[in-house]
């Protein structure tokens, strides 16, 4: 155990106990505390509130934090990816979707309790991910990508439904935020059982996981059934996380931060990771809940603690990352099977270009009218053109810009999970947008755009500080980005929980819309996209060398700091510009580069160009779908992009098994 | 006396809680194939990485009379090519593309990939016997072929000095001899320098002109292969009694006694 842990753990524990004790003493002075055993009949109201509200709440914070920390540690060990956490496998989103569906379609189900519904949703989502993973021997990269895809599809559907059925929003949002309010000890009992069972099971798995840290081949060579161990470990992690999700709601970030903190504090090997991650997770959640309790007198009981974890945990991780030593786990293993490589990439690139042109043409020409579909005649075309052209241009440019940013970041970090959404740029833009919404009584679109841009720039600056640090490994940069995203997500959850009119405006923007865009804005976005594309092509040699790692890149005399800085900057500009239009939820930046690669575009120049074309196509299709599916109402653009892209990418991943 | 390639004075490398290299002062001659040998953890790979400017070190180190940190990244890469022990996976790259990366120090990020560059790449592939593999994906080749592909990348870099970190540890005996013969031929025919980290003491004695031995982060000995191939010298380096036999052609071979 390292010195850092020895100093910080007791401090955090004291803080957690102190905060809880403060809240408890404020509720009821010490001499009046009820004696064990608690019998509600003999107690007054304050005593009941303490014994059956505050006390189980304090315990459940510890238990839930421990469960999430353990779940995250197992997932990171088995997927061998430092950015894996319970949300990565789609667990939380699956639970969320199930709850949203149940609330709207079958409210009776919820009378039994949220737990079975959420558990079923989480199980289904994780099952789907495991099924995809099974085809590749549960290889880490495939699992994480599949998990993110399933998760984003589920939350896209959930958000779309939430938007359509606004009056149920508040209760869902509170569940989403992960409130820890308790009315009795039943939650503690069931969660304690799960944590105890999970801990036991994890202890049994610790040796196989330790062997697995050699990599799949080494482990198989030692006679281990790699697929079985991976399945069992992933299953255990899902069970732990899904239980917490069902019991308390979405508590983001603890599952990611706890193992990351333990590792940066210098713990090496699986066993310390499995032991200390639950402890750290429990402390993180307890401290956060203690802070909520301390502030609760002001803002009311219902403020969700889950919304706060990112708010405190995010900056904490950011602050710790550069200070602590220690290694992140080895890079992801390449068990996915090589992506195909085309001999003549020009053909598919020109094919994509033609497709893009045809699609744009068709989308202008064909439209939906109240009683069916119509091909426009010349007269209506000239009438519609000024309305349709700007949004087409804007959608395609935004898609291309996001895809370019994603391709750059994936090559820069040599991590297939990097994308503008993951690097926190979108999160920053969201924060900026929200700030603008709240700062002005009647914000103009200019003010909102500026807000998003400034937010994106700030998030980017933060991540850039990390990048410019000497020898900062790419995984830590990713972690920094995720911290920013988590921070933004918590602020958003907190805003949503207020249920104010402004929160509706933000929620609408989150899913993106191209309806309000003017010609000038569309053209300037197109100019940005083309300029970024040109700049990316100019840097394609860096992009070819960087995936080989810093050793080779430095050996070839590549100016590492400069290359990183300029690529991050370029990616940030592209993301900031595009996010203003489509909202931060699109995930085009994650999907499009993968699609380009899976189609066989291997060389850096072809790859980024193909990704840009695919991104533009995706957004065009999404724009069309968003306009047509719910005619005459418009559905969110970013959601549609996720809905179209995610299944396509899953299909591409399944297909190219060699 | 021959010219000096590296001049090392009071070099030390620390990681938290441990000193990997301790007070090493050393002169590496130019125009020779130099072997870095020693037991596991003796610091030979660390020393090579310091020379490749991959990790910072205390003390003063000069390449061709100029301190390491005074070289610009590209100038350094034109002088010196480094092959890491574990070559990273080259996702989706064929051999020609990998070898072309070696031209980066010459054309930079924006410069034209001119006829000179094409010639250098073709020549490097021919020299390393990779001509037939030009369009094959690097990740699909065998270990020996992949090693030669990476060697070809270093050759295309046209650096005067090659630094190789255990280039033969994953190869069979025939490929070991092949790779070392290739390196030796390149050095002697084209007047290049090479510094190679080697495990195999007999290979070091047979293919290298100058031996530097490390032990526990300190310099244990340096000299010619003949000076190395003595029983007491080997015992001092590896801490194991060794027997030195002489082959009919006069070449010496060491085996554990």
From TrEMBL, chain A:
<keyword id="KW-0813">Transport</keyword>
<keyword id="KW-1133">Transmembrane helix</keyword>
<feature type="transmembrane region" description="Helical">
    <location>
        <begin position="542"/>
        <end position="562"/>
    </location>
</feature>
<feature type="transmembrane region" description="Helical">
    <location>
        <begin position="188"/>
        <end position="206"/>
    </location>
</feature>
<dbReference type="GO" id="GO:0033214">
    <property type="term" value="P:siderophore-iron import into cell"/>
</dbReference>
<keyword id="KW-0472">Membrane</keyword>
<comment type="similarity">
    <text>Belongs to the binding-protein-dependent transport system permease family. FecCD subfamily.</text>
</comment>
<feature type="transmembrane region" description="Helical">
    <location>
        <begin position="446"/>
        <end position="465"/>
    </location>
</feature>
<protein>
    <submittedName>
        <fullName>Fe(3+)-hydroxamate ABC transporter permease FhuB</fullName>
    </submittedName>
</protein>
<feature type="transmembrane region" description="Helical">
    <location>
        <begin position="568"/>
        <end position="590"/>
    </location>
</feature>
<dbReference type="InterPro" id="IPR000522">
    <property type="entry name" value="ABC_transptr_permease_BtuC"/>
</dbReference>
<feature type="transmembrane region" description="Helical">
    <location>
        <begin position="611"/>
        <end position="629"/>
    </location>
</feature>
<feature type="transmembrane region" description="Helical">
    <location>
        <begin position="517"/>
        <end position="535"/>
    </location>
</feature>
<feature type="transmembrane region" description="Helical">
    <location>
        <begin position="389"/>
        <end position="409"/>
    </location>
</feature>
<feature type="transmembrane region" description="Helical">
    <location>
        <begin position="273"/>
        <end position="296"/>
    </location>
</feature>
<keyword id="KW-1003">Cell membrane</keyword>
<feature type="transmembrane region" description="Helical">
    <location>
        <begin position="248"/>
        <end position="266"/>
    </location>
</feature>
<feature type="transmembrane region" description="Helical">
    <location>
        <begin position="7"/>
        <end position="28"/>
    </location>
</feature>
<feature type="transmembrane region" description="Helical">
    <location>
        <begin position="348"/>
        <end position="369"/>
    </location>
</feature>
<dbReference type="GO" id="GO:0005886">
    <property type="term" value="C:plasma membrane"/>
</dbReference>
<feature type="transmembrane region" description="Helical">
    <location>
        <begin position="421"/>
        <end position="440"/>
    </location>
</feature>
<dbReference type="Pfam" id="PF01032">
    <property type="entry name" value="FecCD"/>
</dbReference>
From TrEMBL, chain B:
<dbReference type="InterPro" id="IPR017871">
    <property type="entry name" value="ABC_transporter-like_CS"/>
</dbReference>
<dbReference type="GO" id="GO:0005524">
    <property type="term" value="F:ATP binding"/>
</dbReference>
<comment type="similarity">
    <text>Belongs to the ABC transporter superfamily.</text>
</comment>
<protein>
    <submittedName>
        <fullName>ATP-binding cassette domain-containing protein</fullName>
    </submittedName>
</protein>
<keyword id="KW-0472">Membrane</keyword>
<keyword id="KW-0547">Nucleotide-binding</keyword>
<keyword id="KW-0067">ATP-binding</keyword>
<keyword id="KW-0813">Transport</keyword>
<dbReference type="GO" id="GO:0016887">
    <property type="term" value="F:ATP hydrolysis activity"/>
</dbReference>
<keyword id="KW-0406">Ion transport</keyword>
<dbReference type="GO" id="GO:0006826">
    <property type="term" value="P:iron ion transport"/>
</dbReference>
<dbReference type="InterPro" id="IPR051535">
    <property type="entry name" value="Siderophore_ABC-ATPase"/>
</dbReference>
<keyword id="KW-0410">Iron transport</keyword>
<dbReference type="InterPro" id="IPR027417">
    <property type="entry name" value="P-loop_NTPase"/>
</dbReference>
<dbReference type="InterPro" id="IPR003439">
    <property type="entry name" value="ABC_transporter-like_ATP-bd"/>
</dbReference>
<dbReference type="InterPro" id="IPR003593">
    <property type="entry name" value="AAA+_ATPase"/>
</dbReference>
<dbReference type="Pfam" id="PF00005">
    <property type="entry name" value="ABC_tran"/>
</dbReference>
<keyword id="KW-0408">Iron</keyword>
<dbReference type="GO" id="GO:0005886">
    <property type="term" value="C:plasma membrane"/>
</dbReference>
<keyword id="KW-1003">Cell membrane</keyword>
<feature type="domain" description="ABC transporter">
    <location>
        <begin position="6"/>
        <end position="241"/>
    </location>
</feature>
């Amino acid at each position: 155990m390292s010195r850092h842990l020895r100093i910080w753990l007791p401090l955090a524990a004291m803080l957690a106990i102190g905060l809880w004790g403060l809240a408890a003493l404020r509720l009821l002075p010490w001499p009046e505390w009820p004696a064990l055993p608690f019998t509600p009949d003999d107690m007054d109201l304050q005593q009941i509130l303490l014994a059956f509200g505050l006390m189980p709440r304090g315990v459940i914070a510890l238990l839930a934090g421990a469960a999430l920390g353990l779940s995250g540690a197992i997932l990171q060990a088995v997927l061998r990816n430092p950015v894996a956490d319970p949300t990565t496998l789609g667990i939380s989103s699956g639970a969320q979707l199930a709850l949203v569906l149940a609330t709207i379609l079958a409210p009776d189900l919820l009378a039994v309790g949220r737990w079975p519904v959420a558990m079923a949703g989480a199980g289904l989502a994780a099952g789907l991910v495991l099924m995809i993973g099974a085809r590749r021997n549960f290889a880490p990269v495939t699992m994480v990508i599949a998990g993110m895809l399933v998760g984003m599809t589920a939350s896209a559907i959930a958000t779309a439904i939430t938007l359509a059925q606004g009056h149920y929003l508040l209760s869902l949002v509170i569940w989403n935020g992960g409130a820890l309010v308790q009315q009795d000890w039943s939650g503690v009992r069931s969660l304690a059982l799960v944590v105890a069972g999970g801990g036991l099971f994890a202890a049994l798995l610790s040796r196989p996981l330790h062997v697995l840290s050699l990599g799949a081949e080494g482990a198989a060579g030692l006679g281990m059934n790699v697929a079985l161990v991976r399945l069992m470990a992933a299953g255990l992690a899902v069970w732990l996380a899904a239980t917490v999700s069902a019991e308390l709601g979405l508590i983001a970030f603890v599952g990611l931060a706890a193992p990351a903190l333990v590792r940066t504090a210098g713990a090496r090997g699986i066993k310390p990771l499995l032991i200390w991650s639950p402890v750290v997770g429990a402390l993180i959640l307890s401290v956060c809940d203690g802070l909520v309790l301390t502030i609760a007198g002001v803002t009311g009981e219902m403020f969700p603690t889950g919304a706060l974890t990112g708010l405190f945990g995010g900056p904490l991780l950011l602050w710790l990352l550069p200070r602590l030593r220690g290694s992140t786990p080895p890079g992801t293993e390449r068990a996915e099977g090589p992506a195909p490589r085309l001999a003549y990439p020009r053909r598919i690139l020109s094919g994509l270009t033609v497709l893009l042109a045809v699609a744009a043409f068709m989308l202008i020409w064909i439209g939906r009218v109240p009683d069916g579909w119509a091909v426009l005649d010349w007269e209506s075309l000239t009438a519609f053109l000024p309305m349709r052209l700007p949004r087409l241009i804007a959608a395609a440019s935004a898609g291309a810009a996001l895809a370019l940013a994603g391709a750059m970041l994936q090559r820069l970090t040599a991590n297939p999970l990097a994308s503008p959404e993951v690097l926190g740029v979108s999160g920053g833009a969201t924060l900026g947008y929200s700030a603008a919404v709240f700062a002005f009584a009647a914000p103009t679109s200019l003010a909102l755009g500026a807000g998003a841009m400034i937010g994106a720039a700030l998030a980017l600056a933060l991540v850039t500080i990390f990048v410019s640090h000497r020898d900062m490994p790419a995984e830590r940069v990713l972690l920094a980005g995720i911290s920013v995203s988590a921070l933004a997500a918590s602020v958003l959850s907190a805003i949503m929980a207020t249920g104010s009119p402004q929160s509706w405006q933000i929620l609408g923007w989150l899913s993106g819309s191209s309806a309000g865009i003017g010609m000038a804005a569309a053209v300037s976005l197109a100019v940005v996209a083309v300029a970024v594309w040109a700049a990316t092509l100019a840097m394609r040699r860096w992009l070819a060398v960087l995936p080989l790692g810093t050793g080779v890149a430095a050996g070839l005399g590549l100016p590492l700091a400069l290359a990183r800085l300029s690529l991050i900057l370029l990616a940030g500009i592209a993301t900031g510009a595009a996010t203003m239009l489509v909202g931060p939820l699109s995930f085009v930046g994650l999907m499009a580069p993968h699609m380009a690669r899976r189609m066989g575009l291997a060389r850096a120049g072809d790859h980024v160009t193909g990704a840009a074309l695919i991104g533009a196509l995706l957004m065009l299709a999404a724009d069309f779908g968003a306009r047509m599916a719910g005619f005459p109402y418009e559905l969110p653009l970013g959601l549609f992009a996720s809905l179209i892209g995610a299944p396509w990418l899953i299909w591409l991943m399944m297909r190219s098994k060699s | 006396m021959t010219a000096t390639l590296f001049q090392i004075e009071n070099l030390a490398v620390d990681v938290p809680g441990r000193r990997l290299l301790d007070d090493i002062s050393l002169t590496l001659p130019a125009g020779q194939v130099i072997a870095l040998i020693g037991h596991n953890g003796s610091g030979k790979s660390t020393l090579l990485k310091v020379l490749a400017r991959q990790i910072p070190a205390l003390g003063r180190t000069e390449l061709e009379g100029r301190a390491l940190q005074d070289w610009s990244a590209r100038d350094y890469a034109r002088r010196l090519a480094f092959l890491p022990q574990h070559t990273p996976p080259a996702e989706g790259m064929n051999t020609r593309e990998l070898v072309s990366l070696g031209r980066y120090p010459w054309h930079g990020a924006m410069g034209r990939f001119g006829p000179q560059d094409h010639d250098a790449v073709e020549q490097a592939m021919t020299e390393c016997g990779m001509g037939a593999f030009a369009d094959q994906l690097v990740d699909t080749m065998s270990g020996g072929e992949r090693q030669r592909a990476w060697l070809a990348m270093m050759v295309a870099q046209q650096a005067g000095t090659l630094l190789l970190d255990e280039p033969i540890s994953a190869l069979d005996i025939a490929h070991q001899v092949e790779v070392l013969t290739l390196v030796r031929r390149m050095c002697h025919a084209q007047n290049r320098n090479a510094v190679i980290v080697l495990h195999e003491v007999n290979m070091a004695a047979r293919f290298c002109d100058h031996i530097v031995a490390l032990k526990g982060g300190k310099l244990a000995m340096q000299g010619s292969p003949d000076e190395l191939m003595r029983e007491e010298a080997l015992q001092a380096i590896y801490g194991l009694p060794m027997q030195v036999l002489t082959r009919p052609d006069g070449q010496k071979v060491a085996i554990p006694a």
